[in-house]
Specification:
By secondary structure, the protein is of the alpha/beta class. The protein has one domain: P-loop containing nucleotide triphosphate hydrolases (Rossmann fold, 3-Layer(aba) Sandwich). About 35% of the residues lie in helices and about 25% in strands. It is built from eleven helices and ten strands. The strands form two sheets. It has a six-stranded mixed beta sheet with strand order 6-7-8-3-9-10, sandwiched between helices. A four-stranded antiparallel beta sheet has the order 2-1-4-5, covered by helices on one side. The termini are far apart. The relative contact order is 0.14. The model has no long low-confidence stretch (mean pLDDT about 95). Bound molecules: adenosine-5'-diphosphate and magnesium ion. Magnesium ion binds next to helix 1.
Amino acid sequence: MANLESDIIRAEELTFEYLTEDGGGLHHGGRAIDGVTFSVQKGSFTAIIGSNGSGKSTLAKNMNALLFPTGGKLYVDGHDTTVEEFLWEIRRCAAMVFQNPDNQLVSTIVEDDVAFGPENLGITPGKIRDRVDDALRAVGMYEFRKKAPHMLSGGQKQRIAIAGAIAMHPDVIIMDEPTAMLDPKGRRAVLEIAHTLNRRGMTIILITHFMEEAASADRVIIMEKGKIAMDGTPSEVFSDVERLREMSLDIPVAVDIAKRMRDAGIDVPKEIVTEEALSDFIAGKYDKG
Ligand SMILES: Nc1ncnc2c1ncn2[C@@H]1O[C@H](COP(=O)(O)OP(=O)(O)O)[C@@H](O)[C@H]1O
Ligand SMILES: [Mg+2]
């Protein structure tokens, strides 16, 4: 049931078609998003996965009003994204974090970078100072506030980009493969921050190709050729191993091991999709006395 009050994002038959230009003029590029209907509840943690070209980034850019539906409707906090007067409110409400941290950092000092968004919103300097400090603390980068972003690691830069999003005081943060270019340590830190923010009430939409990250969400949406192929809890979505393989998606390590254990006759519950849950299950079988 759609609950309009608690939905931060609502797509109704959302369609998006790129127009591409070549020597012969403009051409329709086919539907990158093809009649998609879904909503995202406030306070939830949703992962979006799907093979390359399935429409994830196009969807994210529509949610941030960088692109506009060519068909159907998209509402961000109840605002139709095509209504121009809501544009800045939508971009504040639905903040984006992109894949490449280097393309997002614009200043030569960390704290200036984090201040960039709120400055564009016309926030007073005193309030910006507080927002920047709070945002940098939220990502554990406060002590780096005077540093130059180019001196930081990829993971640290991505944390600064997230701080920049937080400083907008958004209602939802949409992250488009934020960990794709990071080493395992940076990846873990970014995922942990996403969960910490979510525990404090922030709605998170995480686009990822790491299945372990998706398995840690409340809900997983799988995109395929511009449509939603699956939508459910991680255990619902990841228990259909055959379907995932058909879509050329990886299977979370824990799901793979649990399946092998079931094949070997051990009754591992289908709800187990994370490594933590699986190791707890196995540990529970041992008498530790
Ligand atoms: N700027 C663009 N111009 C034309 N077609 C594009 C553009 N960006 C993406 N597409 C096409 O739209 C489809 C969806 O792409 P995208 O949203 O980037 O998918 P994903 O993020 O899941 O890899 C693909 O077929 C892709 O080739
Ligand atoms: Mg993409």
